[in-house]
Amino acid sequence: GQRVFHKLSLLPMPTVAIVNGFAFGGGLELALACTFRLATENARMALPEIKLGLIPGYGGTQRLPRVVGESRALELIMTGRVVKPEEAERIGLVNRVIKGEPLDSGASFAREFSGFGMLALGYAREAVQRALDLPVSEGLKVEADLSTLAYQTEDAAEGMEAFVAKRNPQFKDY
Questions:
Q1: Is residue 49 annotated as a catalytic residue, yes or no?
Q2: One of 29, 86, 87, 126 is an active-site residue; which one?
Q3: Each residue of 128-149: pLDDT tens digit?
Q4: Could you tell me where the DSSP H helices lie in the chain?
Q5: Taking the CB of residue 146, how many other CB atoms lie within 10 A of it?
Q6: Rounded to an integer, what distance in angstroms lies between the CA atom of residue 13 and that of residue 149?
Q7: 3 state SS of 173
Q8: What CA–CA distance (Å, rounded) separates 172 from 35?
Q9: d(CA 134, CA 143)
């Protein structure tokens, strides 16, 4: 499970998990491996492994603190408490609580970033992920390197030309 979820977390394109119902244990760990998490009003999330004398084993102890902070993560992991959508949004466990048809809402959310160049999205995601493991001074070097790579793409040239021409860019992902 860790290997599969780690591969998901490393995908260069953004991923969106839609929690519609129960996401307990591995289900929540799967959602945590995604770039973004959305929850319907009937979603319930928990890492209840402690109630079985276990701990999360598919990345929950590593990803949850990065998403909600150490103290909240410890509380949720050490109590196995169920989190409802409103609290999940308030503590940053989910990006948004959605209404209506879940897949339509998820697609609408994805459209907010899907028109941008995939390379730039990937570089931005990598810079943020790597920042979590580095001091700010080292993270700034990573950001500078990735920004330099982004500037060298055809998509960057297209984006800047479109800005000057006051038109929408047509990214080609290279």
A1: yes
A2: 29
A3: 988 888 999 999 999 999 999 9
A4: 2-9, 26-32, 60-68, 70-79, 85-90, 102-114, 118-131, 136-151, 154-165
A5: 19
A6: 17
A7: coil
A8: 22
A9: 11
27 touches 60 (CB < 8 A):
no
d(CA 102, CA 14): 18
The CATH 1.10.12 domain(s) of the chain lie at 118-165
Q: Quick check: is 29 catalytic?
A: yes
Q: Which of 49, 70, 89, 126 is catalytic?
A: 49
CATH class of 2-114: alpha beta
pTM (whole model) above 0.70: yes
Which H helix or E strand runs over 98? strand 96-98
Phi-psi region of 34 (alpha: psi -120 to 50; beta: other; left: phi over 0): beta
Amino acid at 51: K
Phi, psi of 34 (to 5 degrees): -85, 160
| Each residue's pLDDT tens digit, 93-129 | 999 999 999 999 999 999 999 888 888 998 999 999 8
Residue 60: closest CA among 76, 42, 43, 71? 76
d(CA 17, CA 3): 18
| 109, two tokens | 């959310």
CATH topology of domain 118-165: Lyase 2-enoyl-coa Hydratase; Chain  A, domain 2 (1.10.12)
